[in-house]
Amino acid sequence: MGEVLEALFSERWPYLLTVVMLLIGLYGMLMKRNLVKKLIGMNIFQCAIILFFIVHAYKYNASVPVYSEVLGEHPELYMNPIPHGLMLTAIVVSVATTGVALALLTLIYRRFGTVDEVELLQKLREE
C-alpha cells in the first residue's frame, strides 16, 4: 500500500495539485459570501484548469516543434504546441474576465455599499 501511494505522489503530483486547486476554487466560488472572495475562487479554478492542460500536454524528453535532422520525422519526439497556445488564450480571457468582474464589483459596492452576497440580495429585495 505504501509503494502505491509513493508512486502516486511521486509520478502524478501535478495532477494532484490540479485537483487540490480545483477543489479550493470550487469551494471559494460556492461557499463564500463575499463576492471578491468568489472572484478569487474563480481565478484559482481557472488557473487549475490551465495548469491541467499544460501538464497534460507536456512530453518528457520531447523537443520543440521545429524540424531537426537528428530527430527526423518522428512526431512522438516533438511537443505539440497547440495546447500551450490555447492556454495562452485562456490566460488572456481570464485576465479580461477578472477585469470586468472587478469593474462590476466596484459599481456594486458604490451603489449598495456592500459586496456581501446575502446583504446585497436583501437590499435588492427592499428596492
Automatic annotation (TrEMBL):
Pfam families tied to this protein: Oxidored_q2 (PF00420)
Cell compartment(s), UniProt: Membrane
Membrane topology category: Multi-pass membrane protein
Domain of life, per lineage: Bacteria
Presence of keyword Membrane: yes
InterPro entries referenced in this protein's UniProt entry, alphabetically: CPA3_antiporter_subunitC (IPR050601), NUOK/Mnh_C1-like (IPR039428)
Keyword Membrane: yes
Transmembrane feature ranges: 12-30, 39-58, 86-109
Keywords, ordered alphabetically: Membrane, Transmembrane, Transmembrane helix
Main location: membrane
Family label: Belongs to the CPA3 antiporters (TC 2.A.63) subunit C family.
PANTHER family, A to Z: ANTIPORTER SUBUNIT MNHC2-RELATED (PTHR34583), MULTISUBUNIT SODIUM_HYDROGEN ANTIPORTER, MNHC SUBUNIT (PTHR34583:SF3)
Name recorded for this polypeptide: Cation:proton antiporter subunit C
